[in-house]
Amino acid sequence: MILAFSDRGRVYWLKVWEVPQGSRTSRGKPLVNVWPLEPNEKITVVLPVKQFDENHYVFMATSLGTVKKTPLVNFSRPMKRGIIAVSLDEGDHLIGAAITDGQHDVMLFSDAGKAVRFDEADVRPMGREARGVRGMNLEDGQRVIAMLVAESETQSVLTATENGFGKRTPIAEYTRHGRGTKGMIAIQTSERNGKVVGAVLVDANDEIMLITDKGVLVRTRVSEVREMGRATQGVTLMAVDDGSLLAGLQRIVESDVPEGDVADGSDESAAGADGVSGVSGSSESGTSGSSESDASV
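Above: the chain's sequence. Below: its structure in token form.
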């Protein structure tokens, strides 16, 4: 089963076998023909679910710094029209969601280069229509652009800015604090760097995909990005043309399906984008997969 969360705070269902299969270059099926999306509604996160049990939660974050944790079993009854996953205030959008076991740390990143890390146990479980609690304290005009769930202290956080700069920093440098704070510096947002557009958890042997607002894609190895402290500006990740901005980044995961087992009609390479969060064309979505309503599955 696939859970698809939209920026309007709604969740939709789709069985995996119902996803149209095609080649890497095929157009796919418009999302408006898969789910009853409202005008300008975007799918921001897609989560695969094997079993709806009582030991897991869906942890969500919004662009205005609100977080919420809801038992996974609350999403076990599919409805064709979708249901409310989180109630949003005016001007707020859902930017991230992840399935957790209630025992991890959650990290929020703002477009101003700040980050906050807190124990997800600080957020009590709530019903679907609840608004949530304060996860990050933002100043006027700032937005949360990424939500990460820390899995291992051996990982690094790779941050990227709109002018093509970025860095990776050991996750251990992001110390745990209580939720609702303004956070610590994740990367300097100088005139050179611009705003932060994405943050992802990576290992040294991973690869990442960078995309500009003009549709230019660059794939690079994480090991080629210098590991640096939090309060630094970073290095060049991608040279962006004048008038172009980096829109997002995504960690690339290798397929565990043997090459000979790929279904007929699919000439995808062995690598694909992580299904939990994709590349967005909006700086308000950071690492979350903001697929436009006329995008394709």
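The longest strand covers residues 246-254.
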